[in-house]
Each structure stands twice: as structure tokens, then as C-alpha cells.
Design goal:
Length: about 625
């Protein structure tokens, strides 16, 4: 089929000498081996890129058609199926309070009848709540891992079993249309109902106007790039990201999820004050698409969020056992007893993905210019749906002690929602000739983002957010390494500030929003070239200041021939991994049962690693144990 493109063009009756189809086909194998896991990726990729220059057509002075197809098959789900496939997981046991501690008085039981013990199997907790007696019928103790166990011990916190097998093998905890991939969809994620194998399919053309002005149009499935940052984003938020490919470490062009978008760019050219001016309108008319955070049981699950979501959905649908829960904090701030809940009491009820409507499309406006002094800048506005989910409490659930239904403040029962966000920002590029560098700056403020907060009755709070990045790119001679060729040195500092952040001291620890009020992440890239640019070593480093976690990723690209490229690399993390924060189990959502009678009260602050510590660890800290070595082969036919 790929070879038919030139024939199709000729069959259309083009005159001799017309621009033919230009077609490139690539094959790539990317293999990762992870510490203590073994094979974590064995992905085969076939990609075709084709473009056709149509020339002057109708009102267009130039018109072109581009298509890019990509299909992958990751054999890791079959080659390491005990970790990532149909045989992953197994039975789990969960912590049950402080061994030997007597909890009997808390529950009105005879002394010595309710003691803390060692771990108890899922489904065999000493405290069983309403309608939990037959829980194991729908939620058997198999095919699971303990939440967060790849990173930390439970250590007195909350935890529960999480199903990890593909959703066609084990449907427990699968979120409909969000995280419900079958084995085939995990192995070959592009072949889905969103037609992700179409990486690009668009027309692009220029319509000349008077006075040297023009109108540029680009309509179809595409990526729209508003920023020039690596690893993290400030303005470049139009396309969602597929973090399941390789966390944050793949090139942005490979992990942006293309969307059906119309771009209109009015190119005004020069004026008295500017060398160039453009005004761009971007309309993302595609059906909403969130980030792909990685489904639990797959190799890359950023922040381990997919496992938390799947475990919580399983708790809602089927009930389950939660470690160290009942009576937590009541005896000198110590953990409670393992507790088995029934269905529809705690967990994630549903995911509310916005359907297609005109109101749910996304609109962006950008003005960019170059001043007479060669200062490049842009002013950007975007209204869009958050590509990250918000956990919104306050849903109708079942009272775990009486069986009544209602809404209960501070209860860990949620829906996943994607709120509307408005962004205003800009960028500035400065050619600093005195130091031979380009200084890049981006900044944005958003309104509408939502964050977890244990101080709020619905356990979330909206906050305005300021994000910014300052970067410096400099070609630099390092004579001791290469006296004939410069190295590219690129450094960036990303900052984030939550304007409406809230935290306070509870009786047993800090409560409120787990996200840092202020945080910074620094990155440094050093890249060199040897042997007529056929050998290119690179060192990429990143450090999360507040999480105190860093990553170092050395690699070497070797262009063996014009068609064959080999890449050898590694990714090594160091620093603090898991971090603790209030987990809300010391809240009093059911007065008279979970605490004193009267009004529901917020958490006292007893914390653990799960679930909110992940927001303090960040993507680097949460992957601290995911060191890997890499070999990639790319061949152009």
C-alpha cells in the first residue's frame, strides 16, 4: 500500500514535472530493561510520512497535503507477562494496625478481641462494614498488587489491592473510555476508535492578500506547538500528552496526541515597529481528549496515578479491604485496623469525560512579532478543558454503617471531572549576542484548575496557577572534549506557584493541599557531535527542588549509515522517592460512627504515602525505582 502513493499521483492525471508524492518509511525497535523488573519495553514501530506539494491551486499561492501514519506493537506484554500481561499480579495482604495493640475498646468489643496483627489477606480484615460479606465473589484476591508497593512499604498508611491485568482479562477497576484498554490496545495503542495511527492528516496553504499580507490555513489532524520547552510545558498545552510511552522522557513530537484542529494565521509582515507580525487563531474542534497517564499494569504509569484510579474504582464497584483504616489516630496517633468496605461506599464512582459539543471545543489566540531589535515575543490566550482529571467529592454514596444513601462531607468518594481552564500567557526570545546565547522565557497564568485539599468538604479546591520557564541555549566550545565542534548547552528552570494554596496544622499533621505552593524543576542538556556529526553523545539531567529527586539520562546516537541509526542510553534516578501527606482517614464523615456525634469534621492530619504523597514526590520522585537501560534501532527504507 505504501508504494502506491506515486502511482496514485500519476493516475490523477498530473502534468509531467508536477511535484510527486514524497514518501519516507521508518522502522524502529525500542528496548528497555528496568532494574528489578527486567524487560520493560520491546516496542516495534512502523511509521510512514508522506507529503504532496500541490502548488498554486485556486485562491492558494501554495497548497500541500501531509499524512503521517504510525503503528506500534510492544511485545513486553507477552514476553514479560508476569509483570505486565495476563499473568501479572497475584494475591495481596494488607497491614492491620500496630501488632499487639488492643483496639477493642474503640469498637465496644471485649478486651483482647481486636488486636493489631501482621498483614491480613485482602477480604479477611477484622473490621467488616455494611454489605461487605460477599465482597470476594466479585473482587477475589488474585491478579493484584498493593497500591504503591513498587515504590514504598505501607508503613502505617492506607493501601489496598489494585488489579493490574489488561481489562479484557480482568475488568475490575477499569474506567470506561478512559483507562479500560485490552491487551491488544496496550500492545498496539494507535489502533483504537480515535484512529491514533493517523499522526498527521492535514492540508496547509497560503492565500495571498494585498500589501504583501497573507492568510495561512492548516486544517486537519495535527500538533500545534506554542512553546519550546523540554520535558515540561508552560504554553504548549493544546495537544494532550501520551505519558504511557516513556513517562516524561520521550521527545514531545512523539508523545503529543494529535487532534483535529483548524489553524488560521494572518501574516501581516513588517511595520514601522516590527520586522514581522502574525495573528493566529487555533480551533481544536475534536472531541475532548485527556492525557494518557498510563493504565495500571502497564510499564509507564506517571505518578502511579493510573493505579490509584483503578484501585479506587474497584473499591467503589466491588468493595475491598483498606489497610490501617478503622480507628486510625484514636490511640496516640497510631494506625487503625484493616477494614473491608462494601460496594458504593468509598472510591471512584465514574469518570465524566466531556462529550462533543461546541461548548467543549477549545479556542486559542496568539499574537507574535519580531521587533526592530530582533526581539521575538508572543501573547497567548487559550480556553480549554483540563487534560488532567480532578477528584471531586460530595457524590451520593452508601453509609458504610447504616446502609442509607446520601452525600457525606470529607468522604473519600469521588467522580473524575475535567474542568474548564482559561490560560493567559506569553513568550520572549532574546538574542544575547554578548554571551553568544538565546534566552527563552515563557509564562502563563491559569484559572480553573482544581487540586486535592483535605480541608474542603468535597476534598478539592480551585486555584489560580502561575507557571514560568527561563531557558538559555548556547553553542559552546569545550576544547578538552572536541576542539573542532561546539556543544549545545541548554538549561531551563521551570517554576510553579499556586495562588490559592491552603495548608494548616492538624492535631496529627499537616492538612490541606498536598501540592507544593512553590516549586522549581531544573533541566540541563549537553549535546555534542563527532565524526562529521554521525556520532552524537548527549547528557540530559533534571532535578525537582522540593521533591529532592533527580534524573540523569546519558545517551549516544550513532548514525551508522544515512539510513540506520542506533541509540544507546540509560535513565538513572536518585534522591527522595515516596513522600507522606494527610490521607483523610482521620476525618469524621459519619458523626457518631467515625468520631464524635454532631457535625462532620475534616481530617486530623494522620498521613501516609498513599494517596496524596504522590503530589509531593512529582513524576521524578514517583519513578525513583524505574532506572533503565535502552537500546533503539531506527531504519529508513
Amino acid at each position: 500500500m505504501l508504494g502506491q502513493f506515486p502511482a496514485v499521483a500519476t493516475a490523477a492525471g498530473e502534468p509531467a514535472g508536477a511535484n510527486p508524492w514524497v514518501v519516507d518509511v521508518f522502522y524502529e525497535n525500542d528496548t528497555h530493561s528496568r532494574r528489578d523488573v527486567g524487560l520493560a519495553k520491546f516496542r516495534h514501530t512502523l511509521q510512514m510520512e508522506a507529503d504532496k506539494k500541490l502548488g498554486a491551486t485556486g485562491p492558494f499561492s501554495s497548497l500541500g497535503f501531509n499524512v503521517k501514519l504510525r503503528g506500534t506493537f510492544d511485545a513486553v506484554y507477552r514476553m514479560n507477562d508476569l509483570r505486565f500481561g495476563n499473568r501479572a499480579g497475584g494475591p495481596v495482604s494488607l497491614e492491620n494496625g500496630v501488632p499487639g495493640q488492643d483496639y477493642s475498646a474503640l469498637f465496644g468489643a471485649p478486651p483482647g478481641t481486636l488486636l493489631g496483627t501482621g498483614p491480613v489477606p485482602h477480604g479477611e480484615a477484622p473490621i467488616a462494614l455494611f454489605n461487605s460479606g460477599n465482597m470476594l465473589l466479585n473482587n477475589p484476591n488474585d491478579g493484584m498488587v498493593v497500591l504503591g508497593s513498587q515504590l514504598h512499604d505501607t508503613d502505617g498508611g492506607v493501601a489496598f489491592g489494585v488489579p493490574v491485568r489488561p481489562c479484557d482479562t480482568d475488568s475490575r477497576g477499569c474506567l470506561r473510555d478512559y483507562m479500560d484498554a485490552s491487551l491488544q490496545e496496550l500492545e498496539s495503542p494507535e489502533f483504537n476508535d480515535r484512529l491514533d495511527f493517523l499522526r498527521e492528516l492535514y492540508f496547509a496553504g497560503t492565500v495571498p492578500l494585498s500589501d504583501g499580507k497573507s492568510l495561512f490555513l492548516k486544517i486537519g489532524k495535527q500538533q500545534v506547538i506554542w512553546g519550546r520547552t523540554d520535558l515540561f510545558r508552560v504554553l504548549d498545552v493544546i495537544n494532550p500528552i501520551d505519558y504511557s510511552r516513556n513517562n516524561i522522557y520521550d521527545e514531545m513530537q512523539d508523545i503529543r496526541i494529535p487532534m483535529w484542529i483548524a489553524q488560521f494565521e494572518y501574516r501581516m509582515g513588517a511595520s514601522e515597529s516590527f520586522q514581522d507580525r502574525n495573528f493566529q487563531v487555533v480551533w481544536n474542534f475534536d472531541k475532548f481528549r485527556p492525557h494518557n497517564l498510563g493504565q495500571c499494569g502497564s510499564p509507564n504509569v506517571i505518578l502511579d496515578a493510573g493505579c490509584f484510579f483503578r484501585g479506587m474504582k474497584n473499591l467503589w464497584d466491588n468493595g475491598g479491604t483498606v489497610a490501617n483504616f478503622a480507628g486510625a489516630g484514636a490511640i496516640n496517633g497510631t494506625p487503625g485496623l484493616a477494614t473491608t468496605f462494601g460496594p458504593n461506599q468509598i472510591g471512584i464512582r465514574d469518570v465524566n469525560l466531556p462529550g462533543w459539543s461546541l461548548d467543549n471545543t477549545q479556542l486559542g489566540l496568539k499574537f507574535e512579532g519580531v521587533t526592530k531589535d530582533a526581539l521575538s515575543f508572543s501573547v497567548n490566550f487559550l480556553t480549554y478543558r483540563s487534560q488532567l482529571p480532578s477528584l471531586r467529592g460530595g457524590i451520593t454514596s452508601v453509609h458504610p454503617f447504616t446502609g442509607a444513601t446520601g452525600t457525606f462531607p470529607y468522604l473519600i468518594a469521588f467522580d473524575l471531572d475535567f474542568p474548564r481552564v482559561n490560560l493567559l500567557g506569553g513568550s520572549l526570545d532574546i538574542q544575547a549576542d554578548a554571551i553568544g546565547s538565546v534566552i527563552r522565557m515563557e509564562a502563563a497564568i491559569t484559572k480553573g484548575e482544581e487540586f486535592p485539599s483535605t480541608m474542603q468538604p468535597r476534598l478539592f479546591k480551585e486555584s489560580k496557577v502561575v507557571r514560568y520557564v527561563i531557558g538559555l541555549d548556547r553553542p559552546t566550545f569545550i576544547p578538552m572534549l572536541n576542539k573542532d565542534r561546539t556543544f549545545l548547552i541548554s538549561g531551563q528552570i521551570f517554576g510553579q506557584h499556586l495562588l490559592d494554596h491552603e495548608q494548616a496544622d492538624g492535631p496529627l499533621g499537616r492538612i490541606g493541599m498536598p501540592d507544593w505552593k512553590d516549586n522549581w524543576i531544573g533541566t540541563l542538556l549537553v549535546k555534542g557531535w563527532y565524526q562529521n556529526d554521525r556520532l552524537s553523545p548527549q547528557l540530559l539531567m533534571a532535578y525537582d527542588v522540593r521533591a529532592q529527586a533527580g534524573a540523569v539520562a546519558p545517551s549516544v546516537e550513532w548514525l551508522v549509515t544515512d539510513n540506520l541509526k542506533l541509540t544507546f542510553g540509560a535513565n538513572i534516578k536518585a534522591g527522595t522517592g515516596a513522600r507522606k501527606f494527610d490521607d483523610d482517614r482521620t476525618a469524621n464523615p459519619f458523626p457518631g460512627f467515625t468520631g464524635p456525634p454532631g457535625e462532620a469534621t475534616m481530617s486530623a492530619g494522620l498521613g501516609g504515602y498513599e494517596p496524596l504523597g504522590r503530589f509531593r514526590s512529582g513524576p521524578i520522585g514517583m519513578a525513583i525505582n524505574e532506572d533503565f537501560v535502552q537500546f533503539a534501532l531506527r531504519y529508513k527504507f
